[in-house]
Amino acid sequence: MKKTSIALVIALALTGCKEEAKEDAAAAQAKSESKEVVAATKTQTTDESGLSDQDKLAYGVGASMANNISSLNDTYKALDIDMEMVKKGFNDQIAKQSQMSEEEMMQQAQIFGQKLHFAQKQAAEEEKEAKLAENKKFLEENLNKGFTATESGLQYKLVQAAPEGAAKPAETDTVRVHYTGTFTDGKKFDSSLDRGQAFEFSLSGGVIQGWLEGVKLMEVGSKYQFVIPSDLAYGPVGRPGMPGNSILVFDIELLEIVSPEEEAQRQEG
Questions:
Q1: Cα(220)–Cα(162) distance, rounded to whole angstroms?
Q2: Axis crossing angle, helix 53-75 with helix 2-23, rounded to the nearest 10
Q3: Which of the listed residues 80, 114, 245, 260 has the most CB atoms within 10 Å of its CB?
Q4: CB proximity list for 203: less than 8 A, separation 6 or greater
Q5: Rounded CA gap, 11 and 106, in Å?
């Protein structure tokens, strides 16, 4: 996305630079005052490439622009940009022999922006569909590993049974748990154990749906592993460090049900 933004800004800047130069008197004055600096830089020694520092700067800017446009072309096939015409347009504009007026160039820059937006949207939709298909396959295969699925699609497996007669939380209770969260590839993204502090929350809300449903299946002292489909987690939006449509795996130990008295005392304090 960074490259996309740079390329679009460059396209708009190229078409609008002449008008901006006319309107920005301060910039024009600064440019005039910098001529001596540029001239001095040109006299700097060259290295094996035969280019001065100022030449490298100019060459690098041109190469970076070409790289950005080429990258867009490779990423979004629907753009179908003719790179030879890009080079011709660049060279003609530098030589002040452009075959388009400023208005026409601005119009084409806007059309390019629209095509790019459509191509990005199309690519995102294709990526989403591929991810959902991958998720479906994973969840189907995971049922062969000792997991049980609820009607909502939540998958769970008992890892450690609770002591006999242990209490089971109701949906109005507040509970304390220890947990470790990973992605399907085993990469850990969060853990109360690593922080050394149990996590407390109400089963009436405040956490993802997969947790609300899963912890209600547990008894105090038990440990479960839950595989939570994306629609019971953070959905297509995701969150920082967590891509959209991610399946989440949680190992949860239910430590205790917080007594109403303790909860009331804490709220009063």
A1: 6
A2: 130
A3: 245
A4: 169, 170, 171, 172, 173, 174, 175, 212, 215, 216
A5: 9
- Helix runs in the chain, H state only: 2-23, 25-33, 35-42, 53-75, 83-94, 102-142, 192-195, 209-215, 260-268
What is the rounded CA–CA span in Å between residue 124 and residue 237? 12
Do residues 97 and 91 touch, judged by C-beta distance below 8 A?
A: no
pTM of full prediction above 0.70: no
Alpha-carbon distance 65 to 15, whole Å?
Answer: 14
Q: CA-CA distance, 228 to 66, in Å (whole number)?
A: 44
Asked if residue 203 lies in contact with residue 258, where contact means CB atoms within 8 angstroms, the answer is no
Cα of first residue to Cα of last residue in the chain, in angstroms, is: 48
Q: Which two tokens stand for residue 196?
A: 């050394």
Give dist(CA 168, CA 171) in Å, integer. Answer: 10
CA angle 169, 143, 226 (to 5 degrees): 30
- Tokens representing 9 are 């800004």
Alpha carbons within 13 angstroms on the beta-carbon side of residue 113 total 15
Output the six-digit token pair for 60. 């690098």
pLDDT at res. 14 = 43
For 32-91, write each residue's pLDDT tens digit: 555 554 555 445 556 677 788 888 898 898 899 889 988 998 888 888 889 999 999 999
Q: SS3 for 47? A: coil
Find out whether 209 and 235 touch, Cβ atoms under 8 Å.
Answer: no
